[in-house]
């Protein structure tokens, strides 16, 4: 009888008591580089607590530094460059909750509903795990090292077990950095499976060659043209019939916008696509000028990098103030070729751009300086 009463009470609380609704001038969804940038700038100009940041977590996570979590001493998250939102945004309301729906007036979460004048969506993207990989992920065999927490979890598993072999799926920027960290700092055999014919296939051929030479020199086995079709226990099966044993797998292939795009209501049906959220030159949703989208979720023809997300934040900040009457004209976002630094362990890196590919210790030092400078900007 007590169990029945408990179930009734839970049902009553969920269905009979309406959620509270609170209004904010600006609501920002997601605290990555774009979200934190907009929140910091606006909260310094607008009245206190008129800006709200909604995120599942209560801290900023410096993702570019997360590969080092794999082999950090004691594999402590203290190394991961986490910074609490409340220490960065003292004048901003921090709401730790999961968003359940977004419409043209409200943001609904598991706890409350929030109305807004302006909305900034920076919720990012998710790893594109196929169903067979998701099944193995539940059994703690496949990891997606896209956050410091996930990377640290994988690092703990590696440090606590003397694995004979570790597989990295995907030879993009993340996959190369993960493979380099493992190859330089563990005794395990590291195999990198890439579906294309070279690493870093969106970059220069010279950059691909330099990364491949480094990894092979460190003992990493590179296999190209390998598309994974299934994972059974500790064996990876590829479409060409080849198989590769792996005690644990770091899945770094593909991205998906479906999880976060699905939060948008039917009012946004013309602006939600398979690639993300469609925006105009001012980073506004095409039919909803009070709603902005920045960072990885925005459909912009450029690499999805922290530098570009920071530039999105500057444009969105300016344009919201323009709509509030602080400026006369909206700012248009212009894509630009940015330099990228690809870490290869602690002492080597590649600095690459449209026409540049520079490998060595100096790029590694530059990467270290950029990370320190970026974190200092976030925290001050």
Look at the structure and give the CATH class of the domain at 128-254: Alpha Beta
List segments where confidence is low: pLDDT < 50 over at least 5 consecutive residues: 1-17
CATH topology description of the domain at 128-254: FAD/NAD(P)-binding domain
Q: What's the mean pLDDT score?
A: 88
CATH architecture of the domain at 128-254: 3-Layer(bba) Sandwich
Largest sheet: 8 strands, mixed
Per CATH, the superfamily of the domain at 128-254 is: FAD/NAD(P)-binding domain
Assembly state: single chain
What is the number of helical segments per DSSP (H or I, 4+ residues)?
A: 10
Structural class: alpha/beta
Distance between the termini: 56 Å
- Give the overall form: globular
Strand content: 25-35%
Overall number of strands: 26
State the helicity in percent bands: 25-40%
Work out the radius of gyration: 22 Å
Write a compact overview of the structure shown.
This protein is α/β, with parallel strands linked by helices and 380 residues long. The protein has helices at residues 2-15, 33-45, 85-88, 131-138, 148-160, 173-185, 205-217, 258-261, 306-323, 361-379; strands at residues 21-29, 51-55, 59-61, 82-84, 93-96, 99-102, 106-109, 113-121, 126-127, 142-143, 165-169, 189-194, 221-224, 228-232, 235-238, 243-245, 248-251, 255-256, 272-273, 276-278, 284-285, 288-293, 298-299, 340-344, 348-352, 357-360. A hairpin with a 2-residue loop joins strand 19 (272-273) and strand 20 (276-278).
């Amino acid at each position: 009888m007590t169990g029945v009463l408990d179930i009734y009470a839970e049902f009553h609380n969920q269905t009979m008591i309406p959620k509270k609704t609170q209004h904010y001038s600006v609501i920002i969804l997601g605290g990555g580089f774009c979200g934190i940038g907009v929140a910091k700038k606006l909260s310094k100009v607008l009245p206190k607590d008129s800006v709200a940041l909604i995120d599942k977590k209560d801290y900023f996570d410096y993702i570019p530094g997360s590969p080092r979590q794999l082999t950090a001493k004691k594999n402590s998250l203290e190394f991961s460059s986490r910074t609490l939102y409340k220490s960065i945004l003292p004048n901003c309301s921090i709401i730790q909750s999961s968003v359940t729906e977004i419409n043209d007036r409200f943001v609904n979460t598991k706890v409350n509903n929030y109305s807004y004048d302006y909305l900034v969506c920076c919720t990012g993207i998710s790893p594109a795990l196929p169903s067979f990989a998701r099944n193995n992920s539940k059994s703690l065999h496949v990891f997606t090292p896209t956050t410091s927490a996930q990377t640290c979890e994988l690092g703990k598993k590696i440090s606590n077990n003397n694995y004979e072999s570790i597989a990295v799926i995907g030879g993009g920027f993340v996959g190369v950095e993960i493979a380099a960290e493992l190859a330089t700092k563990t005794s395990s055999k590291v195999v990198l499976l890439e579906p294309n014919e070279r690493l870093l296939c969106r970059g220069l051929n010279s950059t691909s060659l330099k990364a491949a030479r480094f990894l092979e020199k460190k003992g990493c086995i590179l296999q190209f043209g390998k598309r994974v079709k299934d994972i059974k226990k500790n064996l990876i099966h590829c479409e060409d019939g080849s198989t590769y044993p792996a005690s644990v797998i770091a899945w770094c292939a593909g991205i998906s916008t479906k999880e976060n795009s699905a939060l948008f209501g039917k009012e946004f049906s013309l602006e939600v696509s398979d690639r993300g959220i469609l925006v105009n030159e001012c980073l506004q949703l095409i039919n909803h000028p009070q709603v902005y989208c920045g960072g990885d979720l925005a459909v912009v023809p450029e690499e999805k990098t922290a530098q570009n997300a920071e530039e999105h934040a500057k444009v969105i900040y300016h344009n919201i103030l323009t709509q509030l009457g602080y400026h006369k004209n909206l700012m248009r976002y212009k894509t630009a070729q940015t330099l990228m630094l690809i870490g290869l362990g602690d002492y080597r890196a590649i600095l690459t751009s449209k026409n540049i590919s520079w490998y060595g210790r100096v790029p590694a030092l530059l990467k270290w300086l950029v990370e320190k400078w970026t974190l200092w900007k976030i925290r001050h």
